[in-house]
Every structure is written in structure tokens, then in C-alpha cells.
Amino acid sequence: MSYKDLQDFILTLEKKNELVRIKTEVDSELEITEITDRISKLYGPAMLFENVKGSEFPVLINAMGSYERMSMALGVEALDDIADGIGEFIDMSNYLGLMKKIKSLPRLSRLASVFPLKVPTKGDCQEVIDRDPDLSKLPILKCWPGDAGRFITLPLVMTKDPETGIQNTGMYRLQIFDKKTTGMHWHLHKDGREIYEKYRERGGKMPVSIALGCDPAITYAATAPLPKMIDEMMFAGYLRKKPVKLVKSITNDIYVPANAEFIIEGYVDVNEPLRTEGPFGDHTGYYSLADLYPSFHVKCITSKKNPVYPTTIVGKPPMEDCYMGKATERIFLPLLKMQFPEIVDHHFPLEGVFHNCVIVSIKKRYPGHAKKIMNSLWGFGQMMYTKMIIVVDEQIKPSDVSTVAWKVFNNIDAKRDIVISEGPLDALDHASNLPHLGHRLGIDATKKWPSEGYTRDWPDDIEMSEDVKNLVTSRWSEYGLDKFTK
């Protein structure tokens, strides 16, 4: 199913007993974080804070902070359900010239929903227009004691490539400097940074519009590791099975989701000196250091008449962003398998906070196959940031971390099975000697073959015979063990 907007999703969460309304007055400085951190660690519900000190707007947090709510956000029973058609969506050849071919190729008709609809009238997000904006009116969180200030943590930052005219939507935190100025946290490797660099070559002001509080599929799409030629709003349409309605911003030519709760419009002056942004308590569980970033200047804020302010906190897992990362893991597995058919499955442990560890199972076909996969993944998109890749045989389920650990602890010879590779690292990595550059570790925990120089007999796993397993299963209740799993 698709949701009309964020408030429609809130009502659905409430009907499913997945949301708690908190009417006690709370402070957006640290208090909401402390409450939410405790709830996250207890695998608790979404929360709507209806009485936030100093602001008229309620705050929604932890809305996608469980596997169940993440699946609900994307309108499926399980995240793997989305993966089935992702290869067809990503393969641009499938809908090259789609609008012309749609009538003659029925197979493509279901992809029509990916195309956003530009609405000529104003959207719900423009019911209230404030041309003298004041960011202090929003209940923006100061998340952690060491943060440099308040940060908008769930923004959909929308820009337009000056060469192609294609819009990009990404999620980059925004530190509040004053009532009309924020930082713009464009990392070195991000698409938003690349577009910014194009504007720097031209000089002048770069238009930016920021959406807060969209249908959750739209919010998730802004975080997805899409190829550059794929518009995030197209991907959101694919997830929703319904086109995203867009309206033109009031002060620039960027199109924004019509049903967003808030739109913040403005510009980045590319001729302006960079400004110190941070530190910030980040998803790694550590404070990311202060650094120099562009400034975003607010010209106008539009909103619904009774909007809800969405936010999230990040830190030591589990947190809400972990489940967004898990959605990416499941949805984009088929794309990975298209490139590397030998991959059976993969798993990013929550403790690895996205880039620090991935466990991959493969159908091993030749000597050194595991090492080939390691090096291939380090050269594949955002996988280049992955600090540790563990490769296991196809019968091992990567999400069964206990079994994976058993294989790693018992199956490796340190000299033969460890690979150390130098390459790019995520900007938030704090362990490397240099920013953006360091070493990655590969562990080959697969069974070793004679053709790989292994001269002994590799031992078989201990397994009970199938007839005894079946006998015990059939007699489980006779043992008086019904309350335990079989």
C-alpha cells in the first residue's frame, strides 16, 4: 500500500499499536534523544511528542525503528518482497522511451508509476507560506551533549544538476547556525557534493529545496544507493506503486513532494567561504569531528496548516537508521547478484553501522573465488567503504552470525585467508590515519580446496542423521517439550 502523506502513515502506525502519543511537555534539547535512545534499545514503538517546549509543532521520531515498521513504511509484509522487481527497475533499458512504448508493451505498464507527476497548482506543503522564515520556530533537536548545536536530521535535500537538469535528492544533516542559516553536510563522495562542485565552476548561488516529512517511501528513497541516472522520486514511485506528486518551489525551480509537511527553500552561495560544521553524535556511535562545509541560506519556509516535524537520532545501534540500512540490504541484493551471480546472500550486521562489515555467502566455483568477490565488492559503488568483508560458503546463512563466527574462528589460516586492501573509506571513519583513505580487511572463511594449496582432508561438519531428526520432531510433544522450539 502507499500512504497519502506522513500523517496517513502516523494513523496507520497508531491503528497497528506501533505508536505512542506523549502529551507531557518535553525538551527538544537532549530530552527527546534520551527517551528515544532508551526506547530504541528496548525495540519499542514510534513516538509522537505532542507538547514540545518552545514549539507549536509535534515531533515524530522512531517511525521506522523496527523491522515491522520499516516494512510497513514501504507497504510490504517483508523487505525481501520489494527485491523481486528491483533489477527490472534499475535496468534503464527496460524503460528507455517508456512513455512512447507503454501502450504497445504491456509488460512495462506496471512501471508507469515510477514517473513523478508535476502538479501545476500549489501543494498541501504550501498551505502556509512564510517569506520571513525563522528556523527557531521548528522543534529541531540537539541530540547529544557534545553536538555543536541543533541539527535537522531527516531532511530530503533536493538540488538540480546545472548540466543535465536532473534533480537529485539526498539526506544530509543540517546544523542550525542562526534562524536563517544552516550548514550543508555534503560529504566528498556524495552526489550532492558533486553537483555543488559543478555550481562552483560557474559561480553564483545554487538553489536548494529541503522537504521534511514525506510519505515514508519518499523519505527512504532519499537514502537509497541509486545509480546516478535514477531519480529518487522515480524510485519512490516504484516503492509506492503510485507516482509521487511534485510541485514547484515558491522561490526556485526545484520540484518538491506536494504532500510534505514542511519545505525549506533557499540557496548555497558557492563563492562564500566554507564554515565550521560539527561535531555531531553520528551513526557510528562516536562524534564526527568538526570540518568545513558550505552554508545554506533560507529564503522561505512553506508548510501544511497543521504539520508534524519528523526527526531521527543516530548513535550506538540499534537505532532507527539501522532498519533503513537493513531495507537497503534486502532491496538491493538482486542488483548485487546481477553483477556477481555467484553471490547467494549478504548481511550487514547492525553493529557494523552500514559500511564497517558485510558477510557474503557465495557459490564457490574456482580457486581464489572468495578473494575475487572481496575485490569486486570494494570496487562496486558504496561498497568501496566496507571495512570488513567476510566470505562464507553458500550453505551458510550470513544473518546467522553465530554460525558465521564459528566458520571464521575455525576455517581460516591467517597468512592464507586474510586480505588487506587500501582504498577509499567513509568520511565518518575515525580509525584510519588519513581522512577518506585507509585499509579494508577481507576474510575468506570458505572451505579450502586442494587446488588452493590445501593438502590435508578438510573435515566434515558434525550433523545428525535425517531419520533421527525426523523421529525426534514427530515425538517432540511426547517429551513434554512443547513450549520449546523444535
UniProtKB/TrEMBL annotation:
Top-level taxon in the UniProt lineage: Bacteria
Keyword field contains Nuclease: no
Enzyme class, broadest EC rank: lyase
All residue ranges annotated as the 3-octaprenyl-4-hydroxybenzoate carboxy-lyase-like Rift-related domain in the record: 122-317
Single Gene Ontology MF annotation: 4-hydroxybenzoate decarboxylase activity
Recorded catalytic activity of this chain's protein: 4-hydroxybenzoate + H(+) = phenol + CO2
One Pfam family linked to the record: UbiD_C
EC number: 4.1.1.61
GO biological process, one term: response to toxic substance
Domain 3-octaprenyl-4-hydroxybenzoate carboxy-lyase-like C-terminal: 322-445
InterPro entries listed in its UniProt record: HBDC (IPR022390), UbiD (IPR002830), UbiD-like_C (IPR049381), UbiD-like_N (IPR049383), UbiD_Rift_dom (IPR048304)
Residue ranges of every copy of the 3-octaprenyl-4-hydroxybenzoate carboxy-lyase-like N-terminal domain listed in the record: 11-83
Parts forming coiled coils: none
Keyword Membrane in record: no
Keyword tags: Aromatic hydrocarbons catabolism, Detoxification
Entry GO terms, CC: cytosol
Sequence similarity: Belongs to the UbiD family.
NCBIfam families according to UniProt: mena_SCO4490 (TIGR03701), UbiD family decarboxylase (TIGR00148)
Protein name: Phenolic acid decarboxylase
Lineage of source species: Bacteria, Bacillati, Bacillota, Bacilli, Bacillales
